[in-house]
Amino acid sequence: MGILRATTELSDKQVLTYASVYWSVFSNLVAVIIIWSLLRKQPRTTKIEKGEPTSIGKSTAYAILGFIALLFGQSICVFVMSQFGITGESPNTEMLGELARAVPLMIVFTSILAPILEEIVFRKIIFGGLASRMNIHVAAVISSVFFGLMHMDLSFLLVYVVIALILCYIYTKTKRIAVPIAAHMLMNGIAMLGQFLIGGGS
């Protein structure tokens, strides 16, 4: 914020917005680089990754079908939640959409960096680690609940947990962390596109 104040003529509100976006992108990029560099030389020892990964063709199909499953799963969750009076857009998604409309660079964080970091942490490390020590289904549920709580949006916890469970399934079936990353990227990209369209029409 100090750098922006010293080098630009942005208002205090704009400085806060731009600083939040730039820091999110920078810090997550550094985190991805550090974590990936630490893990890329590690042997595939978790229960999830044992065996032969699916071919590139099958992995691509799983990523696309997984993306469709994510959209369908979200729709089912939204319908179920509406029966209990929970309607509207997730505050977390709305906030990210507002930041992306104000500073388009936020799209890089939301659609690329966040999915990479979240899949490495929650699927590869947490889910993979737990699955090697307990029943794989219990591991999927525990890691998915952690994933949901991390988003700090309890009213939409069901949506996040279902998303995480689908991503756990994709990872388990393909044994390639890149596959849930790709499906997650597509899902977030579509969500951001929707926010832009909604924002543009308001």
TrEMBL record:
Q: Does the keyword DNA-binding apply?
A: no
Which GO MF terms does the UniProt record name?
endopeptidase activity
Residue intervals passing through the bilayer: 20-39, 60-82, 102-122, 134-150, 156-172, 179-198
Would you kindly state one Gene Ontology biological process term found in this protein's UniProt entry? CAAX-box protein maturation
Q: Where is the CAAX prenyl protease 2/Lysostaphin resistance protein A-like domain?
A: 104-189
Q: Domain of life of the organism in this record?
A: Bacteria
Q: Which Pfam families match?
A: Rce1-like
Tell me the keywords, alphabetical order. Answer: Membrane, Transmembrane, Transmembrane helix
Question: What is this protein called in UniProt?
Answer: CAAX prenyl protease 2/Lysostaphin resistance protein A-like domain-containing protein
Any keyword Ubl conjugation? no
